[in-house]
Structures are given as C-alpha cells and as structure tokens.
C-alpha cells in the first residue's frame, strides 16, 4: 500500500512544526534552490483554494494573502474523514478550484512569495476542514507514514469471526504495545479491521485489542444481490443509491435490514451466506 500522505516537494526540511523565534510555526518548510521545483499534492483530493496574485520576491512581514503568498489548499477524504493540506509561498499555481488531483500531481512551483526569505514550500496539514491556521497539526507523523491508520470495515461482532491458527500477540492499537496473547484454535468475534498506513499490514479488532491478519483465518457473512436494489441511509431511512448485482460484506443486522458498511438494504431483497 502506498503512503497516505507524501512529501510534497523534493528538498531539505529547513524549519519544523512548533515554536520558532517566539511564535508558532504551523507547518514544515521544505527548501530547494533549483529552478522550477514542482510542488505535488501530498494525497489525492480536490482543490479547495488556489490563491495567487503575489510577486515572487517575498520578505519577512510581507502580507500578501495573509503572508502565505501564492498558496493552494487540497481537501482530502480518507475513509470518510476530511483532511486539508496547504502549500504556501508558491511561485506559480498549476490548478484551479474544484479540480480533482491524484497523489503526486503537480499543483504549482516552489517559490518565494509572501512572508518568505528564500525559495521553499511551507506545508500544513489539518485533520478536518480548515477554519483557522491554529488548527494545523504536525505534518511529520503523516509524512513519515505513521499516520493515519485507515479503517476499512467495522462489524457488530456477529457477522465476522476469526479462528487463531498460531499463538498470536494482541496489540493495544494497530501494531503498537502488546497487551496479551491468544492461543491457537481459539475463535473470536471480529469488531473491525484496520490497515496500518505505513506498510499496509492488516489487523483485526477482536474486542480486547488487535491481532495480525496472518495469525488467523477470517469468516464473513456476505449478501448476494441478484438484481438492482435501493440502499438506505439507515433502516427505514432515506434512499442513498441503487446497488448493482454483486456480493457484499454484511457488517450487522437489525429488524429485517442488513448493514453493508455505509448503507443498509432490506433483508428480503438479498441472500446472506457465510464464507
């Protein structure tokens, strides 16, 4: 699995996130003295802002676009969670608002616009839709691949089980802090599965903690759809979309309805099997 967020430009880190000369620096700076250094989208998303109009001869205290100079904000949706990334002090911008970008797509050229003393890109990351700069978090755990861990499925403990095939460590979180062990032959309800973003390793949540996928075999219930049906936001809720024929994981059941993750279907319209 590729890293969720990547370094947005080639260069050296020249200033970290944190206090700097008595004031807060809300991102990391990446500098490169080469000409026309491209700045890339750190992750796939949609251009939320593309703000230009600043000259490329910045200086400390330059207030063009609030000191950011020419900048771009990309909005990302990762497993249903919103992130914003901001790229500042650009020489030029290569994208427009509403444009979809893939990870690594060029969004501009590194520059020296706004409150800046040399060619670099100032990179910020937000764990929500950006409202103010003070909400920015340290980008380095993301750029190092330590965050985020990405959830793919949650279950209610009824519709998936794991049989342990060899003694397995139980982790407090995905890949971190061993808190116990499970013996071979044990069968446990599965409440979810998570993938560690740094290397794609899959772990199953067995209630007390997480176990590595290689230490057991998983059994799921599946719903087979034979003709196009409606899906719903909740049992008896609003129609979300039409679901094409196919086989889908069942995450839970309630009052004649099956949950397929982000949507519900009527039980009498599908055939449920365990495999």
Automatic annotation (TrEMBL):
Key word Nucleotide-binding present: no
Pfam family membership, one: Peptidase_M23
Positions of the M23ase beta-sheet core domain: 24-133
Entry annotated with the keyword Aminoacyl-tRNA synthetase: no
GO molecular function, one term: metalloendopeptidase activity
Enzyme Commission number: 3.4.24.75
InterPro entries: Cell_wall_metabolism_enzyme (IPR050570), Dup_hybrid_motif (IPR011055), M23ase_b-sheet_dom (IPR016047)
Keyword entries, A-Z: Hydrolase
Protein name: Peptidase, M23/M37 family
Organism: Lysinibacillus capsici
